[in-house]
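for the recovery benchmark. tokens below, seq after
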């Protein structure tokens, strides 16, 4: 039987709506970190605010349910095309250059300074850097754990292509798979929920392990991240981002938004069954299974729905949209260096924690993009990125 060949997006047919989604996600990342001192969270942060806004617990939980997984989905989507255009050697070289150099720069130069000035005690920087940070193996990659994963997944993809001996010609001979229907999407949602629940029995949320000893990983969200990256690869081969039916996508957007709104409503109703602590603890608790399902619903609904919504309503880009999307990656790299100083400046101000969150967010987002715009113009940065 003769198969219909898969139509590939050409470099000129840039998916502007995906760029716009990425900008939204970057802004959410900035807001997520801007709120860390002011809401209930299981993680550690450099600034401590004694008063907390409970509603930010729902904000953190909803964000964590989908936004990093969404990044992995988008990242996976663009891997096969880059590999096919460049070949394995150039593909990996560029990945090491664009991901590895920023990781090394921040891990060896930026994060040591941050930790030194916040917790070094009486040590000199030299003593702290060589005796503690390097000497005791306390090297940190911070929020760049995402880049470490992307680099690892890129290597795995190249190995898979080599082992499977897949090339561009063989890909074009593959039959087109239509976008997943409701039943298949629901099946993935259920599988993700069950696997996530099982993983969180030994590995609660905010428990970080060194995957293969060197890859910082929050195991509790690994099923989501890895599966969405692979789905992104499949979606590219069958053009799902462009071919997902509008009505189907908007239905899932409604499901995802509904699940997210319910999470906020639960917090406003002062429910305690799904507090940050209960959710994070995992284990055999039925609430962990319920939250894993709730979280998977938010994730799948928003990932499918927002892509379709932006494709239908946010597919264009003016001058400012192009500037924002062009600087999104740099903003992801540097935003911590903007958010933390702003939080320090706001710390002595006597206003409610929720107002501090809004103030830090509203100042940090435009400031990050402004600084990112000029950082990206630096010769060395342009050479790497």
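predicted aa per position
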């Amino acid at each position: 039987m003769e198969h219909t060949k898969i139509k590939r997006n050409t470099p000129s047919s840039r998916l502007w709506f995906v760029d716009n989604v990425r900008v939204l996600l970057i802004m959410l990342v900035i807001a997520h970190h801007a709120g860390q001192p002011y809401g209930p969270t299981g993680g550690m942060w450099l600034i401590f605010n004694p008063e907390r806004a409970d509603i930010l617990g729902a904000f953190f939980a909803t964000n964590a349910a989908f936004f990093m997984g969404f990044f992995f989905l988008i990242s996976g989507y663009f891997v096969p095309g880059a590999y096919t255009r460049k070949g394995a050697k150039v593909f990996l070289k560029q990945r090491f250059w664009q991901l590895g150099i920023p990781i090394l720069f921040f891990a060896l130069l930026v994060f040591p300074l941050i930790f030194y000035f916040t917790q070094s005690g009486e040590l000199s920087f030299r003593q702290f850097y060589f005796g503690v940070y390097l000497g005791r193996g306390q090297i940190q990659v911070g929020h760049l754990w995402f880049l470490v994963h992307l680099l690892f997944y890129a290597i795995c993809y190249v190995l898979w292509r080599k082992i499977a001996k897949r090339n561009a010609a063989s890909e074009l001979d593959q039959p087109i798979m239509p976008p997943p229907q409701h039943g298949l999407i629901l099946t993935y949602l259920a599988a993700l929920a069950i696997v996530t629940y099982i993983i969180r029995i030994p590995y609660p949320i905010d428990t970080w392990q060194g995957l293969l000893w060197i890859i910082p990983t929050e195991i509790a969200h690994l099923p989501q991240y890895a599966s969405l990256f692979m789905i992104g690869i499949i979606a590219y081969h069958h053009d799902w981002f462009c071919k997902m039916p509008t009505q189907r996508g908007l239905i899932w957007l409604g499901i995802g938004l509904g699940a997210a709104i319910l999470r906020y409503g639960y917090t406003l109703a002062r429910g305690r069954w799904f507090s940050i602590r209960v959710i994070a603890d995992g284990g055999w608790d039925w609430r962990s299974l319920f939250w894993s399902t709730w979280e998977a619903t938010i994730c799948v609904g928003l990932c499918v729905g927002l892509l379709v919504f932006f494709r239908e309503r946010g597919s264009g880009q003016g001058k400012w949209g192009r500037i924002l999307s062009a600087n999104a990656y740099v903003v992801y790299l540097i935003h911590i260096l903007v958010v933390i100083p702003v939080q320090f400046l706001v710390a002595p101000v006597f206003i409610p924690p929720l107002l501090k969150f809004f103030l830090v967010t509203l100042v940090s987002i435009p400031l990050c993009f402004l600084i990112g715009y000029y950082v990206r113009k630096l010769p060395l940065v342009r050479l790497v990125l």
